[in-house]
Design brief:
By secondary structure, the protein is α/β, with parallel strands linked by helices. The chain contains eight helices and nine strands. It has helices at 17-24, 56-64, 83-91, 102-111, 125-135, 140-156, 169-182, 198-209; strands at 6-10, 30-32, 36-37, 52-53, 68-74, 77-82, 95-99, 116-121, 162-165.
Length: 210
């Protein structure tokens, strides 16, 4: 039995990565890794579905037991990817998706070099700020921190394997599907999303400037 493929997906908060992933993997057999976090649930979020919501003590205990593939603190809350479930699914030949921030993504890539890293860009930093404010779940100070952090994350997109933009949802979904379906085909359209391409590098720079 061949091992499953690991896809690492990152994007600043407000880029719509959750919506894209839900559509892309609706008809595909994959394991969508549920992260642990110490932040409080937002309205409508369910423990074990959106996140495993842990106390600070529970999170620290998992760190002590080497229970995370990666973990990091962001906006004063901790997030981590449980190791056991991910490794079991890969061994069973099941493709697995991690939706994590950049620091954690590079931690996992170091441990599992064959993982495919995909970064989703917003159309601009200004549009990202607008989307976060429209969501209405955080105060101005928290949004400002997220936007500042997003700029640093977007710069790190150059170190991912592939980059797409979510300016229009349907094309973004199609681009993402192209990558996961054809990333090993040297002649496929997916190669156009590789970060070695000058047009991709220019796209990242333009997002930061807007």
């Amino acid at each position: 039995m061949s091992k499953g493929r690991l896809f690492i997906v990152s994007a600043p908060s407000g880029c719509g990565k959750g919506t894209i992933l839900a559509e892309v993997f609706k008809d595909r057999k994959v394991y969508y890794s549920v992260s642990c976090t110490t932040r409080k649930p937002r309205e409508g979020e369910v423990d074990g579905v959106n996140y495993f919501f842990l106390s600070e003590d529970q999170f620290s205990q998992m760190i002590a037991e080497d229970g995370f593939l990666e973990y990091a603190t962001f906006a004063e809350n901790s997030y981590g990817t449980p190791r056991k479930a991910v490794m079991e699914k890969l061994e069973q030949g099941i493709d697995t998706v991690l939706e994590i921030e950049t620091k954690g993504a590079f931690q996992v890539k170091e441990k599992i070099p064959e993982a495919v890293m995909i970064f989703i860009l917003p159309p601009s930093v200004r549009e990202l700020d607008r989307r976060l404010r429209k969501r209405g779940t955080e105060d101005d100070e928290t949004i400002a921190k997220r936007v500042s952090q997003a700029k640093g994350e977007i710069r790190k997109a150059l170190d991912y394997d592939y980059v797409i933009m979510n300016d229009d949802l349907d094309p973004a979904i199609a681009d993402f599907k192209e990558i996961i379906d054809n990333c090993t085909d040297p002649d496929a359209r997916a190669q156009g999303f590789k970060t070695k391409n000058e047009q991709v590098k220019k796209m990242i720079e333009e997002v930061l400037e807007k």
